[in-house]
UniProtKB/TrEMBL annotation:
<dbReference type="Pfam" id="PF13727">
    <property type="entry name" value="CoA_binding_3"/>
</dbReference>
<protein>
    <submittedName>
        <fullName>Undecaprenyl-phosphate glucose phosphotransferase</fullName>
    </submittedName>
</protein>
<feature type="transmembrane region" description="Helical">
    <location>
        <begin position="12"/>
        <end position="33"/>
    </location>
</feature>
<dbReference type="GO" id="GO:0016020">
    <property type="term" value="C:membrane"/>
</dbReference>
<dbReference type="InterPro" id="IPR003362">
    <property type="entry name" value="Bact_transf"/>
</dbReference>
<feature type="domain" description="Bacterial sugar transferase">
    <location>
        <begin position="270"/>
        <end position="452"/>
    </location>
</feature>
<comment type="similarity">
    <text>Belongs to the bacterial sugar transferase family.</text>
</comment>
<keyword id="KW-0472">Membrane</keyword>
<dbReference type="InterPro" id="IPR036291">
    <property type="entry name" value="NAD(P)-bd_dom_sf"/>
</dbReference>
<dbReference type="GO" id="GO:0009242">
    <property type="term" value="P:colanic acid biosynthetic process"/>
</dbReference>
<feature type="transmembrane region" description="Helical">
    <location>
        <begin position="77"/>
        <end position="95"/>
    </location>
</feature>
<keyword id="KW-0808">Transferase</keyword>
<feature type="transmembrane region" description="Helical">
    <location>
        <begin position="45"/>
        <end position="65"/>
    </location>
</feature>
<keyword id="KW-0812">Transmembrane</keyword>
<dbReference type="GO" id="GO:0089702">
    <property type="term" value="F:undecaprenyl-phosphate glucose phosphotransferase activity"/>
</dbReference>
<dbReference type="InterPro" id="IPR017475">
    <property type="entry name" value="EPS_sugar_tfrase"/>
</dbReference>
<dbReference type="InterPro" id="IPR017473">
    <property type="entry name" value="Undecaprenyl-P_gluc_Ptfrase"/>
</dbReference>
Amino acid sequence: MVKKDIEVFYWLQRCMDFVLPAASVYFAFLWFYADETVSQAAIDLALMLGALFVLVSQLTGLYRSTDLWYQKGFEKLVIKSWLITVLIQFFIVDQTQFNNAVYYSLLLAIPVLLWFYRYLVYHFLQKLNRRGNQRRRVAILGAGKVGRLVAQNIQQSLLYAVNLVAFFDDDKALINQHIESLPVLSNLDDIALKLAELECNEVFICLPVSSEPRIREVLDSLANSSVVVKFVPNLFSFDLLNASWHDFFGLPVISVYDTPLNSMTNLFIKRIEDILLSLFAIMVSAPVMLFIALLIRLTSNGPIVYQQVRYGLNGRPITVYKFRTMYVDSDQSLMVQATKNDRRVTRFGKWLRRTSLDELPQFFNVLRGEMSIVGPRPHAAEHNEFYRNLVPKYMQRHMVKPGITGLAQVNGFRGQTEQLEKMEKRVEFDLHYIRTWSLWLDLKIFLLTFLKGIIHDNAY
C-alpha cells in the first residue's frame, strides 16, 4: 500500500472516530427520549465529543503510526484520548441538562465502541490478507540491516498485503541461511531470470549506497522485466535515525537534522501556545513576583532583576531575565556554575533557585518572542562555547527557541552539570524533544514541570 493509500485510510479512520461518538450520543438521546425532540444541547454535545476526540487523538499520536492502531498498544492510546476528551468537555458542557444515567453510560460505552470497530477492521484485514492469490510475491535484494528491517515491517503490517519469498545477497556467508524466516537463495547475478522463476512481481533493493555499480547492474537487469522495483537506500553508515523523506519540488530529499517546528503551521501553533500560557502565568504569578521583588530589595543591595546574555534561536544572543539571587559584589563569572552552599548566593536567593521562582521573569521573554514556554534551557554563552566542542550535536539545541522548562528538566537533568555525562544526557533529551515536537508533548512537559520539576535537589 503506497503512502497516498495509507493517508486515505487514516482520513477514513478519523471520519469514523468523529461519526461514532457523535452518532452514539445522538441516537442514545433519540432512543431514551422517544417522545421528545432531541434538544439542541444534545446535538451540540454529539458534535463536540466527535470533533474533540479526533483533535485529541491527533495530539496523542493515535494516527501517527501506520500500524499501531491494530497492534498491541492502541488500547492505551484510545483510552488516553477519550479520558482527555471527557476531561475537557466537563469544563465546557453543563451536565445538569442531561439525564445522568444516560450521560455517564455514554461516556463509558463510547470507548468500548471505538475499540470494537478497530478490532472488526483488524479481523477484516487479516481475512483479506489470507487470500494468497491476491497477494504480490516480493523478494528483497540485500540481506543487510535495511533488508531485514524491510522484511520485519512487511511481516508485521496488515496494510501491505504481500507474500515475502526470499532474500538475495552477494555475501557467500549468508547464502542458504534463513533470515527473518526467509531463505537467502543466491547472489544477484541473473536476478531477472531468478525472479521470473519464483514468479516474483515486486522487489525491494536494499543495498548499501557504496554498492552503486552493483545497484546499476541490478537496475539494468530489471529494466526489461515487468517487476515493480522499489529502492530503499542503506544509509545506516550515517546518523539518520531521525531522518525523514520530503518531496522538494519533485525531488526526494532526506531531512537529516530537522524539526517539526520548521513548519509554518507548527510555528504558528507554538507561538499561540506561548502567548496564551505566558499571559496566564504572568497574571497568576503577578502577586508572587511583586512579593519576591520586595523581599529581594529588603534582603540585599542591588537590582531586583538580573540580565544575562544567552544564545537563542539559531545561536543569536538574547537577554534573559531572572530574579537576582547572588550578591552584587560576588564573583558572578558565567563559567562558574552555582554549587551547593555557594557563598555567592543570598539566603533568599537559595530558596528562589530551589523553587525555580527566579525564572518567573522569563515569561516576559516568552511574550517578546525570544523564548518559549517549553524548549531546551538556555545556557550561558561561555558554557555554550565550552560544551560545543565536547558534546556532539550540542549546538543543534538552537534549532528552536530556548524554553523556561524542557524535556531534560522534567527528567531530572537540571542544575549543575559537574560531570560531562550529565550535560550529554541533557543534550540527548533536548534533541529528542526538537525532533519529536508536538503540541501534546509541550502540554505534557508543562504539566510535569508543576508535578515534579519545580523543586529539585540539583537546583542550587
